[in-house]
């Protein structure tokens, strides 16, 4: 056995070229697998760290835990660690502009809480004693209270008391307005030492009545340090944030149910979205949770990210994609590396025959091939693993550079030992499967077959028949080239397959990238503005003042401000075509009430719109947009097609009766009529629930059509297929002048929006936010700014990022394929050196010899491209068809540049490899080559 190993090692040294090529293939395959598992590990680690920062480093939050019960958590074998917070109480904030959040909620914690809670410091430092405090940033941006680091504040901290229920209100309950007061207040003085981002949902509920202020607790620090017992403050209530062990995390429902004292099976069923509970089980579960020992909050995202099994959500998709990519890598690598071993067997076929003739067993010969694979793997796998890790590090940096500004978190480089072990195991499996078939083949070789060496060529003479046109055009060289490719079809099949795989992948991914960028461009091409602003406010806004704000900012080339009000029109005058369309949707269009949106524009935008539409005296009424595009079902093609149609028969001078409802709403007095009735139709989405409508008082108003057009105003972003009317503020106000419609109050809850064409959208957004953030004039308004230029850049960056991964995969697969092609062609040329020497000895000139080699290159390239290019076009077309199921706007256009580049690269690559091999053979001595029996 030692002799066989020595012989194997000597063969590897003698055939250095083939050995190096095979090792390179193994290195590339291992590097791909290592890079894949490292990137998956890095992404998982990054998501976990991001969620810890966003939501806190805990799995389950337990509220209303008595100090005396804290030891039960610290001694629980299912809990890895805990940190605690203590609610100090609420304090009224003077000057807070958010009426639903008028308090500061003072929370105390220690070093562990500051480190593992979701307190992201953006200025200053964390509190170190009980006289220091950290405040949230949204106190300024949302509450409009500007407190700076270094300021000293005084808070009257107490409990929220509900006079209706005569009980204390919990920390996360919404503000009860006039129904609550603060009791048992204690005056506290603090120095602000830091400003943090808003704490995550697990620490500050979105509906919470107070902004979270965090101070230090000497008491909690003393308990954690062991210098104070929990029993000394037995009645103090804490919130315990627990982190489960890995084992407990896999059984989180059972562990949590046991701690809070509820039925485990029922709790697990309630937390499993794929299992439906009966009404009886739901009622029983709610009763059990009402009587549970503690209130809980589960940090679901962190649990799903850290819990390896069962795999759920984001990582289920990630691991599935990774498994598919790994399978592609293994199959491609096995195919290519296997070819190297097959070539090795072919080269040493006589050697194996001689070994068999002197007594070597099949097992020994098979072991020799596997030993060769092991030796190659010992060199290739470590180098490939390190190369994969290095490539992952580079990719992480590239990803962070491309995603800066739009990805919510930075990707962190992270290596996982289990993941790398998995990559090594997969690499070993790849080498094993690559060598197994060749080992069996070598073991079956008999001495007689080895001497004849004809097993590789099994082909009928009919298949070697050469088309006459090849001989007429290219002569004897062309005939020999054609016959050689037919004769060695099995060898060249690997080369052709490698080229086909690379060509198809390159064409498809190139098409996907070009299509993705064109779709992004199309989606934003329909908008003629680059800044969109939505506004919400409980009171009516003056759109002319908003216009002054927008136009006063440098860089505004054009703008539009609108206030949208929803109305409904009973039995509108449909055109025949639109009426039939509505009939398809609602069965009987005559009984349907059609929704209209009246948008009140600022004067400048309205005058320009009326002028562009050619409508005179537009101040006296409304402009109707009477054309719209719909998705109409075509029975012949059995698919939806886009169709533009006129909507109504209305013309200038006609009147539309628009209806709306007046209903009770005690929460707002802005537009209230006598008796506490608010004139409002719906919420900001335009929706009115049936109960409200039934309770409301129906009102109507007559709107005169000043003109009809098929265009919307410049910079206007429409609301789906809603019927649109546009008015100026003067015309809209006139509808309610002098008590028209029997009511002097117009509908409330307008949808305010603005659109700006800015020279530089980024600079305009920055200036706008600075103008409004600290301005008390806009303190009651919430602004939501959309920067379309940035959104388009972000989408393109996302596809660029996908392209980096996709093209990176292509490059490595192509490298594996190229090493395989080099190995196949160069070794094939060497094995045919006796044939070439014989041809030259009977009179073939160097020119004819070169022509023959070039023809072989052409034949191989053409065969591969004839298969690869059409297949790539077909798959890219199918991809387009799939995308068109979502959007018919995509017109297929073959990726001509990618196809041409693919053809050129393939021909040049094959020719270069054959040319190098041919140059080497030219220098061989003809007689010595013919005498060489080892070829």
TrEMBL record:
<dbReference type="InterPro" id="IPR050250">
    <property type="entry name" value="Macrolide_Exporter_MacB"/>
</dbReference>
<dbReference type="GO" id="GO:0005886">
    <property type="term" value="C:plasma membrane"/>
</dbReference>
<feature type="domain" description="MacB-like periplasmic core">
    <location>
        <begin position="19"/>
        <end position="217"/>
    </location>
</feature>
<feature type="transmembrane region" description="Helical">
    <location>
        <begin position="20"/>
        <end position="43"/>
    </location>
</feature>
<dbReference type="GO" id="GO:0022857">
    <property type="term" value="F:transmembrane transporter activity"/>
</dbReference>
<comment type="similarity">
    <text>Belongs to the ABC-4 integral membrane protein family.</text>
</comment>
<feature type="transmembrane region" description="Helical">
    <location>
        <begin position="317"/>
        <end position="337"/>
    </location>
</feature>
<feature type="domain" description="ABC3 transporter permease C-terminal">
    <location>
        <begin position="809"/>
        <end position="925"/>
    </location>
</feature>
<protein>
    <submittedName>
        <fullName>ABC transporter permease</fullName>
    </submittedName>
</protein>
<feature type="domain" description="ABC3 transporter permease C-terminal">
    <location>
        <begin position="324"/>
        <end position="447"/>
    </location>
</feature>
<dbReference type="InterPro" id="IPR025857">
    <property type="entry name" value="MacB_PCD"/>
</dbReference>
<feature type="transmembrane region" description="Helical">
    <location>
        <begin position="496"/>
        <end position="525"/>
    </location>
</feature>
<feature type="transmembrane region" description="Helical">
    <location>
        <begin position="416"/>
        <end position="435"/>
    </location>
</feature>
<feature type="transmembrane region" description="Helical">
    <location>
        <begin position="864"/>
        <end position="884"/>
    </location>
</feature>
<feature type="transmembrane region" description="Helical">
    <location>
        <begin position="373"/>
        <end position="396"/>
    </location>
</feature>
<dbReference type="Pfam" id="PF02687">
    <property type="entry name" value="FtsX"/>
</dbReference>
<keyword id="KW-0472">Membrane</keyword>
<dbReference type="Pfam" id="PF12704">
    <property type="entry name" value="MacB_PCD"/>
</dbReference>
<keyword id="KW-1003">Cell membrane</keyword>
<feature type="transmembrane region" description="Helical">
    <location>
        <begin position="798"/>
        <end position="822"/>
    </location>
</feature>
<keyword id="KW-0812">Transmembrane</keyword>
<keyword id="KW-1133">Transmembrane helix</keyword>
<feature type="transmembrane region" description="Helical">
    <location>
        <begin position="896"/>
        <end position="914"/>
    </location>
</feature>
<dbReference type="InterPro" id="IPR003838">
    <property type="entry name" value="ABC3_permease_C"/>
</dbReference>
């Amino acid at each position: 056995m030692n002799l066989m190993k020595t012989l194997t090692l000597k063969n590897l040294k003698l055939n250095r070229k083939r050995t190096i090529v095979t090792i390179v293939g193994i290195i590339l395959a291992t590097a791909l697998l290592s890079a894949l598992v490292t990137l998956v590990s890095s992404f998982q680690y990054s998501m976990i760290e991001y969620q810890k920062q966003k939501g806190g480093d805990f799995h389950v939050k337990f509220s209303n835990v008595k100090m005396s019960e804290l030891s039960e958590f610290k001694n629980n074998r299912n809990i890895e660690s805990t940190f605690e917070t203590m609610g100090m109480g609420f304090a009224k904030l003077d000057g807070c502009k958010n009426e639903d959040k008028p308090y500061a909620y003072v929370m105390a914690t220690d070093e562990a809480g500051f480190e593992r809670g979701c307190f992201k410091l953006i200025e200053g430092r964390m509190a170190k004693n009980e006289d220091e405090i950290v405040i949230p940033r949204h106190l300024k941006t949302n509450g409009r209270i500007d407190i700076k680091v270094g300021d000293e504040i005084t808070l009257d901290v107490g409990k929220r008391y509900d006079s209706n229920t005569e009980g204390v209100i919990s920390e996360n309950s919404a503000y009860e307005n006039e129904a609550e007061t603060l009791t048992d207040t204690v005056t506290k003085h603090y120095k602000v030492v830091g400003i943090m981002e808003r704490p995550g949902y697990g620490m500050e509920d979105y509906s919470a009545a107070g902004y979270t202020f965090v101070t230090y607790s000497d008491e909690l620090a003393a308990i954690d340090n062991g210098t104070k017992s929990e029993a000394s403050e037995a009645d103090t209530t804490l919130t315990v944030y627990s982190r489960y062990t890995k084992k407990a995390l896999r059984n989180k429902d059972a562990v949590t149910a046991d701690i809070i004292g509820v039925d485990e099976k029922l709790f697990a069923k309630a937390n499993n979205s794929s299992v439906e509970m009966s009404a009886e089980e739901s009622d029983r579960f709610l009763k059990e949770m009402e009587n549970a020992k503690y209130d809980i909050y589960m940090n679901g995202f962190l649990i799903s990210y850290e819990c390896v099994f069962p795999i759920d959500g984001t990582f289920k998709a990630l691991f599935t994609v990774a498994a598919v990519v790994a399978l592609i890598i293994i199959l491609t690598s096995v195919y290519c590396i296997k070819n190297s071993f097959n070539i090795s067997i072919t080269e040493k076929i006589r050697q194996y025959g001689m070994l068999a003739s002197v007594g070597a067993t099949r097992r020994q010969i098979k072991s020799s091939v596997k030993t060769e694979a092991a030796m190659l793997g010992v060199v290739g796998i470590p180098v490939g693993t390190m190369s994969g890790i290095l490539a992952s590090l580079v990719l992480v940096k590239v990803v962070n550079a491309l995603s800066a500004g739009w990805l919510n978190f930075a990707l962190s480089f992270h290596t996982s030992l289990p993941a790398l072990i998995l990559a090594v195991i997969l690499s070993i499996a790849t080498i094993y499967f690559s060598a197994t078939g060749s080992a069996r083949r070598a073991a079956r070789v008999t001495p007689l077959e080895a001497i004849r060496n004809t097993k590789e060529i099994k082909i009928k003479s009919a298949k070697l028949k050469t088309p006459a046109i090849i001989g007429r055009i290219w002569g004897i060289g062309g005939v020999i080239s054609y016959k050689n490719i037919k004769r060695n079809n099995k060898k060249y099949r690997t080369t052709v397959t490698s080229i086909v795989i690379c060509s198809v992948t390159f064409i498809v991914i190139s098409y996907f990238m070009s299509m993705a960028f064109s779709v992004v461009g199309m989606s934003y091409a329909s908008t003629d503005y680059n800044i969109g602003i939505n506004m919400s406010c409980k009171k009516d806004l003056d759109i002319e003042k908003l216009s002054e704000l927008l136009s006063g900012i440098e860089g505004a080339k054009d703008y539009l401000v609108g206030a949208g009000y929803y109305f409904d029109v009973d039995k509108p005058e449909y055109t025949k075509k639109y009426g039939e369309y509505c009939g398809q949707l609602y069965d009987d269009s005559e009984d349907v009430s059609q929704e209209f949106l009246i948008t009140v524009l600022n004067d400048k935008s309205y005058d320009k719109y009326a002028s562009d539409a050619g409508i005179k005296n537009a101040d006296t009424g409304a402009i109707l947009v009477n054309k719209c595009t719909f998705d109409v079902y075509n029975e012949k093609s059995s698919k939806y097609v886009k169709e533009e149609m006129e909507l109504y028969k209305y013309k200038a001078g006609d009147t539309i009766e628009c209806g709306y409802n007046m209903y009770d709403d005690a929460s707002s007095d802005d537009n209230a009529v006598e008796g506490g009735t608010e004139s409002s139709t719906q919420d900001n989405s335009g929706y009115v629930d049936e109960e409200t409508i039934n309770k409301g008082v129906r009102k109507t108003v007559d709107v005169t059509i000043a003109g009809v057009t098929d265009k919307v105003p410049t910079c206007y972003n429409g609301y789906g297929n809603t019927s649109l009317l546009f008015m100026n503020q003067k015309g809209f106000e006139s509808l309610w002048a002098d008590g028209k419609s029997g009511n002097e109050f117009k509908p409330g809850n307008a949808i305010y929006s603005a659109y700006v064409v800015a020279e530089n959208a980024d600079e305009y957004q920055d200036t706008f936010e600075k103008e409004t953030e600290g301005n008390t004039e806009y303190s009651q308004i919430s602004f939501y700014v959309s920067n379309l230029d940035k959104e388009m850049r972000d989408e393109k960056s996302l596809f660029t990022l996908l392209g980096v991964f996709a093209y990176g995969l292509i490059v490595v697969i192509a490298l594996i394929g190229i090493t395989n092609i080099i190995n196949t062609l160069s070794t094939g040329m060497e094995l045919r050196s006796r044939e070439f020497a014989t041809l030259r000895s009977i009179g073939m000139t160097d020119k004819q010899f070169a022509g023959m080699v070039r023809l072989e290159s052409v034949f191989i390239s053409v065969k591969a491209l004839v298969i690869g290019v059409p297949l790539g076009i077909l798959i890219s077309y199918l991809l387009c068809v799939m995308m068109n199921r979502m959007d018919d706007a995509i017109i297929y256009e073959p990726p001509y540049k990618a196809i041409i580049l693919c053809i050129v690269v393939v021909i040049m690559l094959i020719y270069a490899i054959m040319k190098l091999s041919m140059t080497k053979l030219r220098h061989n001595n003809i007689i010595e080559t013919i005498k060489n029996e080892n070829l």
